[in-house]
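Entry 14. Structure prediction run on the chain below.
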Amino acid sequence: MINFFEQYPQYWSDWTTRLLQGAVVTAEVSLSAFALALVLGALLVWALKSPFATLRRLAQGFVQAMRAVPLLALLLTLYFALPSAGLTLSGAVAGALGLGLQGSAYIAEILRGGLDAIHRGQREAALASGLTPWQTLRWVVLPQAVRALLPPLLNAYVAILKDSSLCALIATNELMLAARAIASESFLPMHIFLLVGLFYFAIAFPLSLLSRLLEQRLSRGRRSLRG
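Output returned:
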């Protein structure tokens, strides 16, 4: 065990520099994917609540398809199949697009659940008091929905962050691809992937902890309001 850890001081500077560069790319891809998923998820919720049956069916079909297709298959299709149709994407763009498309299906369900949790009577009371539908959404529904949405949205981002490791398979120079390159050069895969696991833990654990704390605090706030 001691001999195992003796390797780290020798290579620490080079390894951490390259892994930090990969971690920056991981953060860029995951944040871009989450932003795309949030926008598409909001559009999907709008479509799912549309009075037009065709639009609702299309949105439902998209959500079901994205939840059923394996993420790796989606990433490989975007990166390798689209060039034959005349559209070539870099690994980072294809990764962010694939993560965002699949993530939007899950975020749509989160957003819909948060909005549906608001009692209809509050909307009706706001409309009866003279507010427009947009004002009702902005001033009555959204402030309450955000309290319920923040913890699951943070969890959704953590899931996207961890899934971004699959982007290494489409030549995205993120954290996992950097780790594989170092491992092949140093012939110390256990050392490298243990370090990479710590990198992911250092990024994801604080976010998961924040989500749990938010959920507990907001739950106490709701209980005190009921009391």
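The domain at 11-226 is CATH 1.10.3720.10 (MetI-like fold).
Filed with the rest of this week's runs.
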